[in-house]
Specification:
This protein is an alpha/beta fold. It is built from eight helices and ten strands. The protein has helices at about 20-25, 35-40, 45-55, 60-65, 120-125, 160-165, 185-200, 230-240; strands at about 80, 85, 95, 110-115, 135-140, 145, 155, 165-170, 210, 265. The strands form three sheets. It has a six-stranded mixed beta sheet, sandwiched between helices. The two termini are about 20 Å apart.
Length: about 280
């Protein structure tokens, strides 16, 4: 799991120094000071206007419009992008709000392994000092938590460009323990990845579905040698061959009523916070 992709001060890609989620839980670094984004707002309206003018000149206005007052993209609290996922919100310090794919095209899934438990991943991704989080975390039994909307840029890969173009999926377990990767986990992760491929229109192959170890500049090894890529891609492709079922029509709604497609944001109740299991 790569730490902040450069949005928490400075312009470097901000790597995680090779530490896993499990390692960082016990020895976190100090939280950064004033962020670049906060400094802009503290600087007042003049700084905002000047910054916007510079962005327009540089062709970046499409990526920054929502940061201006009154232009926040509408969001539904507790909404998920994958039907059946549980919403567990990551700390806002561990991702960057965006409007993907309108501002950054999505053409990658990055597969991670926690090097720890599902509960550990949820714990550190909710910690603002951690400065990293993935969009999804999958438990051994196949249960999926979504912690960041796919709209937003999660700090998960340790590479700014990859963060902006990808969806990160963490899997409970350890790279050196093949028993970590259960049938239920593979099946659930494959359904999730197939939905992402379908939503953003990229193929299920090893160019577009990669391990954290393959991200340029990383020193991570996950998902490791025990992750069965042939099996995983086979499951993803099998899911893509399935016909997409439409949600049932709501009572009293005519044939012209609009429905969200399968995999569109679905509100779910916020989970109860329960200490180490949150």
């Amino acid at each position: 799991m790569g730490k902040s992709d450069g949005d928490s001060g400075g312009d470097s890609s901000g790597e995680s120094a090779g530490k896993s989620v499990g390692e960082l839980r016990g020895g976190r670094e100090a939280a950064p000071g004033l962020t670049r984004r906060r400094a802009l707002w503290i600087g007042g309206g003049g700084a905002v206007v000047a910054g916007v003018a510079a962005l327009v000149a540089g062709g970046e206005a499409a990526r920054w419009w929502w940061r201006l007052p009154g232009n926040e993209k509408p969001r539904t609290a507790g909404a998920v992008d994958f039907r059946g996922a549980q919403w567990v919100a990551a700390s806002p310090e561990n991702y960057r709000r965006a409007d993907r794919p309108a501002d950054y095209g999505i053409d990658r899934v990055v597969v991670h392994v926690v090097q720890g438990s599902y509960a550990t991943a949820l714990d550190v991704f909710q910690d603002p000092d951690h400065e990293a989080a993935a969009h999804y975390v999958i438990r051994k039994d196949g249960h999926i938590a979504q912690m960041i909307r796919e709209l937003d840029v999660a700090f998960h890969a340790g590479n700014r460009g990859y963060n902006e173009r990808s969806v990160g999926i963490e899997h409970e377990g350890y790279v050196d323990r093949p028993e970590s990767f259960t049938d239920a986990m593979y099946a659930s992760s494959a359904r999730l990845t197939a939905g992402i491929c379908r939503r953003y229109g990229f193929p299920a192959d090893r160019e577009h579905i990669v391990g954290h170890v393959e991200v340029p500049g990383t020193d991570h090894t996950d998902p490791g040698k025990h992750w069965d890529w042939d099996r995983y891609l086979g499951l993803v492709r099998a899911e893509l061959r399935r016909s997409v079922r439409k949600p049932p029509r709501a009572a009293g709604q005519g044939s012209s009523g609009a429905h969200a497609p399968t995999g569109a944001p679905v509100p779910t109740p916020a989970p109860e916070r329960r200490g180490a299991t949150r």
